[in-house]
Amino acid sequence: MARDPEQAARIEQLGSELSALSARVAQLELLLSASGQGVPTPAAAAEPAPAWRSYPDQADEDVSEEILDWAGKAHLLTRVSTLCFLLVLALVLRTLTDNRMIDTLLGSVLGMGYAAALMAIGAWRYHVKSPLAPIFAASGAILMSTIVVETHSRFASLPLVPAYLTLIATGGAMAWVSYRYQRFLPISLGTLGMCLAGAAIDYPHPFFPYLSLVLFAANILGYFAAQLKSCSWLRWIVLAVTLAMLQLWTVRLGMLQVNHQTVPADLAAGWILPTLAAFALLFLLLALTGILLPGPGRVSRFNLALPTLNTVWLFAAAGYLVHSSGGNTRVLGQVGTVLALGLLGLSVWLAGRREKGAPGSSAFALAGAALAALALPFAFGKFTLSLPALSVIAFSLAFMSREWQNGGIRACAYLIQIYASLALAIYLQLHGDAAGDVVNTVPAGLIALIALYQYQWCRQWPPPSSSVFERFDAGDLSAVSLLLCALASAFFMAKAGIFQLIAMAVPAAEFSNTFGCSQSIIINGSAALLMGFAYLKRNKELRNVAVLVTLIGAVKVFVYDLFGAHGVPLVASVFTFGLAAALESVALGRWQKHRETPAALPSDSAARPAA
């Protein structure tokens, strides 16, 4: 059968196109082989390209989800909304009272009733373990304190005694809720509210005996709050407010007594000393109880610091009042000395419990020493004569620290000895006549001997292990301060003796010149003796102290004497410094050679007798 001409032309066209495509494919294969790429397989060519996806920021999503999860678990929005509604009701009552739509007394009663209801609902919510319990309890405590202050101060519709009693009752109720359900928030807010609100009532002219009752209760509640949770911040705030109010009472009363003015009734002059004694006993019992029953963990720093703060501040306040009123300060000093001995005895009793490290004993030892430092000058009637007694206390505590294995007691002994020496030096420097008093050579000499013996004892008996020294002063370098105290006290003893000799042998016109240079001679001679002793004992610590004393002598000679002295005393001052420097140079040179000379080998020493 013959083909149609058009069909034949179509077939021919398709054949030519197929040939062209074959040629094109061949060219593409050549190009791909030249570029190093393989020919894609049909399967690979058929594989679809991955679709482009837009991934969200996973970190932001995680953070936001975490925040939302926390807010949900903490019932944050629920608590915030509840707080707002409770605040709205309180503001409605306040607005009605301010606009005289209800009587002021009625508004105050309704406000305090509303606050009491919130506290009661908070207690019930704690009982049913509701997440809204803290909101109701906290709102009630804060509103009650605020309403009591405003009702008494602004509207004068609540008398003083019911106002204070309401604050005490609020704090007590919140403490009961906290202990009943083992929650810290109610007692903390109740204690802070009664403390701050009590101080704010009638400030700055409160009736201090009533205010003292509120602060007395607040300190007790602060102790019980610390038994639930470690909250030194709460106790520090309550203590600070208490001391501030007692200080205000003391200063106002003392200023009136000094100026012989009439004391107003709100100061209650007959109650201040018994009140101070009551607070002193309270703080002592709270600190002792906190040390004996510390609860979980270590004894808090507040309980360790409270005995010293208590004794120092309250005795100082009592001394100021007795002095301003013209009372017998010697009797006060004797009473304080007896109390100081009692505190030291309490420290011995605490150490006698034979617990490891004698916890708490250092707190009462430091408190007893601090009280003795304040009371002994009143008891002796002369400041310098009381200082050797402190040195004896310091050495006794150092000795007992070894028996008790308590590094804190040893540190207290260092501080007390340093105080005795510094107090003597400052007193004699400020009172020029006392520096030459022969009577003061006795306390200066005693302090020098005791401090020197304590230094030698401390070098013989190192600090106990696992103590404060292991953390801060493993090498017991602080004991060098005892040697410096001994040298300083010995200098003032020699200074008083030289004063008497020069006063008898030198004319008055040359006294100041001779006395000033004689002090330089004492310093230079002490430096030379120290360096010689250090060289004989091969003691680097003594050597370093000798160098320090030499530097002090250099400043005294070349800064003070060279520009302020003249004549033979100046010549003697410069000569003694030069002599001391020469002797020390020889000692240090031989020390250096001795250190650089190698020790003889055992084989050499053994071979010499055989030869």
From TrEMBL:
<keyword id="KW-0472">Membrane</keyword>
<feature type="transmembrane region" description="Helical">
    <location>
        <begin position="411"/>
        <end position="430"/>
    </location>
</feature>
<feature type="transmembrane region" description="Helical">
    <location>
        <begin position="76"/>
        <end position="93"/>
    </location>
</feature>
<keyword id="KW-0812">Transmembrane</keyword>
<feature type="transmembrane region" description="Helical">
    <location>
        <begin position="442"/>
        <end position="458"/>
    </location>
</feature>
<feature type="transmembrane region" description="Helical">
    <location>
        <begin position="207"/>
        <end position="226"/>
    </location>
</feature>
<keyword id="KW-1133">Transmembrane helix</keyword>
<feature type="transmembrane region" description="Helical">
    <location>
        <begin position="331"/>
        <end position="351"/>
    </location>
</feature>
<feature type="transmembrane region" description="Helical">
    <location>
        <begin position="386"/>
        <end position="404"/>
    </location>
</feature>
<feature type="transmembrane region" description="Helical">
    <location>
        <begin position="105"/>
        <end position="124"/>
    </location>
</feature>
<feature type="transmembrane region" description="Helical">
    <location>
        <begin position="569"/>
        <end position="588"/>
    </location>
</feature>
<feature type="transmembrane region" description="Helical">
    <location>
        <begin position="271"/>
        <end position="292"/>
    </location>
</feature>
<feature type="transmembrane region" description="Helical">
    <location>
        <begin position="155"/>
        <end position="177"/>
    </location>
</feature>
<protein>
    <recommendedName>
        <fullName>DUF2339 domain-containing protein</fullName>
    </recommendedName>
</protein>
<feature type="transmembrane region" description="Helical">
    <location>
        <begin position="363"/>
        <end position="380"/>
    </location>
</feature>
<feature type="transmembrane region" description="Helical">
    <location>
        <begin position="233"/>
        <end position="251"/>
    </location>
</feature>
<feature type="transmembrane region" description="Helical">
    <location>
        <begin position="131"/>
        <end position="149"/>
    </location>
</feature>
<feature type="transmembrane region" description="Helical">
    <location>
        <begin position="545"/>
        <end position="563"/>
    </location>
</feature>
<feature type="transmembrane region" description="Helical">
    <location>
        <begin position="479"/>
        <end position="506"/>
    </location>
</feature>
<feature type="transmembrane region" description="Helical">
    <location>
        <begin position="304"/>
        <end position="325"/>
    </location>
</feature>
<feature type="transmembrane region" description="Helical">
    <location>
        <begin position="518"/>
        <end position="536"/>
    </location>
</feature>
<feature type="transmembrane region" description="Helical">
    <location>
        <begin position="184"/>
        <end position="201"/>
    </location>
</feature>
